[in-house]
Amino acid sequence: MLYAYLNSCLTVTRRLATRDLHPLCLRLKGWHSGLLRPVFLLLIILILSPFFCASRLQAQTPEPQEIKPVPLLTGSTGFITTFDGGEPHLGPIVTSVLLVPMGERWMMESRATFESDLAEPPGVSGFHGVVRKEVDYAQLDFIANPYLTVTLGRFLTPFGIFNERLYPVWIRNLQTDPLILPIGIGPSNASTGAMLRGGFKATSNFNFNYAVYFSALSTVTPVNSDRFAGGRAGIFVPKARLEIGGSFQHLLQDERSNLFGFHLIWQPQSLPLDIRAETARSRRGSGYWLESAYRLSQVPFWRDALRRTQVVARMQQSFPGALPSDAVASVNTNMFEFGLNYYLMDGWRATSSYGRQFSFGGNKNVWTIGMTYRFVLPLGREGAE
Amino acid sequence: MTRRTIIAGALVLMIGSCLLAIAQERKETASAAVPATPQKAAALADGASAGSPTAATHGRATTRVLHESAMRIEGEKRFRANCGRCHMAPHKFPPRTMATIVRHMRVRAMITDEDMQLILHYMTQ
Predict the structure, then answer these.
(1) A193/A215 Cα distance (integer angstroms)
(2) Which helix (H) or strand (E) holds A137?
(3) Which CATH code, of 3.30.565.10, 2.60.120.260, 2.40.160.10, 1.10.10.60, is assigned to A31-57+70-378?
(4) What is the ipTM, given to two decimal places?
(5) How far from B6 is each of A259, A288, B1, CA to CA, in Å?
(6) Is some CB atom of chain B closer than 8 A to the CB atom of A107?
(7) Does residue B15 share a domain with residue B76?
(8) What share of chain A is helix, strand, coil (3-state, %, to 5)?
(9) DSSP B55
(10) A165 vs B88, B109, B113: nearest CB
(11) What value does the mean pLDDT take over residues A50-56?
(12) Per-residue pLDDT tens for A340-383?
């Protein structure tokens, strides 16, 4: 079966290359010519391949969970003080995530953020600011089978890894955003539309994960979003604890450009070290960041204190694109950051960092210090049922 | 040209380090004598109890214990590999709470169905 499938993939690829396509496919002529069409079709073929295999592997679907999940209110809270170029900012933040499982296959999830950036306006004493309230995402998930989950609503744009997986204050190792974070995630970090995603074991050595999505244009602030379509695919090698992947997005408005991204996560088994990296390239800006975080649990002295301590380093660079952007720096910018985190208890962490930013617009120091806390509150009986 | 060279160099370094890590992992796995999956552990236990009919009951109990033990070991392994990719591994939660979290993470982190079942099993022990 695998041979036949690969053979058919090769045939389609060959036909795409020679443009010997079915007449129906000629309707796709409106697509952008050149590299985009075959790449997009190949992406679709790759994405759809597990579903064809899925129908033959239904018998392998595990039995439904015996434990009935309970609705949860979880999230995080933090208070981060930032000294940005010597100017102090106070940043209280509360993020709540509501998870409502329905039956065996459905889940409604939503995240709301309340945050403020309190600063001292010139000539006025004290810190002032407004509280920003935002629904980051509100989505309905349907777990169709072990290979596919369908998501509808407003969801975090899966371009790269930071926005979707590392953004919450209790997860991120450094409290400042990467310079390239705004690339590819839309005006409010989220998309409005539909998404297909999933992860499955491809071979005994690695898992494959993917997400394809379409977002519609929304101009309603703060739930605005751009019109684009894209996808992300990656492989995860559990034995090596290594994940690599790439993201692609095609903007369906304005300049109708393509965006590309690449990400990597690696945790060597022999060391308590996390290495993460991400690159992004678009017509409105490009760049990369590379971060390593080392937990001092192997240091042979002061074990009790040092096993809770983590040192972090990140370097990043952003380049302006051919088109202007409000979100990405308009000049070449480099930034080096060093952080120190101390885990007081499960979910509660003290965090600090120092960063030096170099750019044509002027160099500056960025200091952060604060606390983060993650909470989990069940909205029902917790025990096994 | 310089940027392309840097990107190509970075890609080569990353792919090289991946291959190195995989090779290292394979070497370590080959030297380990622990059964890799619950099925293998159960099969080992079955093989051990098949020889003597008088020890059938004892063998079944041993199989179940070994199966549970292997599931727990495998679950812990999957838990560390999957959850640690993004955040510090949390402490255990009550079973129904954990079931919701695992379902959420299945969607968010795109962990596989098998990983989800094993992690849930481990976290609810």
Answers:
(1) 5
(2) strand A131-145
(3) 2.40.160.10
(4) 0.80
(5) 19, 12, 9
(6) yes
(7) no
(8) 15, 50, 35
(9) G
(10) B109
(11) 45
(12) 999 998 889 999 999 999 998 889 999 999 999 999 999 987 76
Radius of gyration of chain A (CA): 23
Mutate to test the interface with A, among B97, B104, B111 (most CBs of A within 10 A): B97
Domain locations along chain A: 31-57+70-378
Same domain, yes or no: B38 and B8: no
B94 and A200 within 8 Å at the Cβ level: the answer is: no
Round to the nearest angstrom and report the end-to-end CA distance of chain B.
Answer: 56
Q: Are residues B47 and B108 in the same domain?
A: yes
Q: Which of A207, A277, A381 is closest, CB to CB, to B96?
A: A381
B27 touches chain A (CB under 8 A): no
Residue A222 is encoded by which pair of tokens? 């703060």
DSSP run (H or E) holding A213: strand A207-215
Q: Rounded distance, CA B115 to CA A206, Å?
A: 12
Judged by CB atoms within 8 Å, which residues 78-117 of B form the interface with A? 78, 81-82, 84-88, 90-91, 93-101, 103-104, 106-115, 117
Shared domain for B21 and B63, answered yes or no, is no
Q: What's the whole-model pTM score?
A: 0.75
Give the pairing type, strands A242-251 and A228-237: antiparallel
Together in a domain, B21 and B77: no
